[in-house]
Amino acid sequence: MKINQSLLRIVLTFIISTILILILGYSLLARSFYLWGLDNSLAMNAIHIEKLINIQGYETVESKLDVIDTDLYPNYQSLPDVIKSNYAPEDFSTQDHYSFEVKDAWYDYPEAAYFIHPAKSANGEMYFIVNVFDDQFLVTEFERIMVESKMPSIGSVAIVAILTFMLIGFSLAQYIARPVSKLHQWAQQLTLKTIADPVPAFGFRELDELAEKIHTNLQNIEKTLSRESQFLQHASHELRTPIAVILSNASLMEHMWHDAPPACQKPLDRINRAGLTMSHLTETLLWLTRNKDYQPKIETFNLSHLTEELVEEHQYLLGGKDVTVELALSSVTQSLPKVMIRIIIANLIRNAMQHTDSGHILIKLEQETLTIVNWGELLTGEKSDGFGLGIKLVKQICTNQGWHYQQDVVHDACTVEVIFTTTKRKA
């Protein structure tokens, strides 16, 4: 299954995702830095209180700590249960400062924050300097700092940053997408007629290299087509002489051998028809490689007689096969390019007879519409032996002449329809 992805959408998604992650990360860091700063400040304050206790005594300092929202606990057992649930006695060291937050999820704002500073008294026993702040104090204090420092809120900064970076990202994506769109339009308008024009600049080295590769590949294709066209022209010209020799000698034999037995007359007729087919084929190849304005010779002839002749000519393809051929031909006389019509009908009949191993073939002609249907066991693939160029040549002739061509395969039946309408034929 083909997946269509937009380069612009991928770039925008990457840029916006990166911006959102960065803004979310820095928003969380800003809140963490506030709590980290508070922790450091309280640690320095606790060290100062410890020094005062060493100088003035535990009881003297304890009575003065209510002013700065600090509590003293003489031992581990007297600590609040929430602290004891987070730390065991052996976890504390007088060389460190401890803190933790109480919250439901990692991204939530803390409901409470605990700051613990262990210290030792003069008699060697450990006591604890504790600061506890609930969410009302933390939020209020944080907002007070933001107001006093005239700093915008994290939410406001995040929204402005998101919108700004989204605008920058969209502008950058558009800046990249414009030359890509230009390359797309240039590639769509590139034809064999404009292949000689210089490659325009697209503003990015990678796009310029891609355009050069596209241009080089198309130039190689154009050279290959030109060589093939020249080969067809030269081959067709070279085949004219031996074909003319075959036809002239076959005609000479037919006039000189009046008393030829019937058994020899049929091979002679087949030689004549094969020579004419080759002559028509070379003329068709030359026509296909010439200017489109060139048109083959228009002749008035009977389509049904031509079809019967071609069916008889290809009967050898049914040798050894259990295939029946039904002809439903109405007498139709038209003025059309006979050479083209002969090539088309011959290839369609040959294709039907070659690809049907057993079954039934219907060849129907009504006015300018030829229909060939073959039922039965169909062979796969297209054979290219004989004098025909196959269905591809038929399609190319119909396209050049503006004739309707349609092929349908349903179950065990293959139907081909060609309408030789002169109103659609190119002038």
From TrEMBL:
Catalytic activities: ATP + protein L-histidine = ADP + protein N-phospho-L-histidine
Signal peptide: none
Gene3D superfamilies: 1.10.287.130, Histidine kinase-like ATPase, C-terminal domain
Main location: membrane
Histidine kinase domain sequence ranges: 234-397
Membrane topology: Multi-pass membrane protein
Residue spans crossing the bilayer: 7-29, 154-177
GO cellular component assignments: plasma membrane
This protein's name: histidine kinase
Provenance organism: Photobacterium swingsii
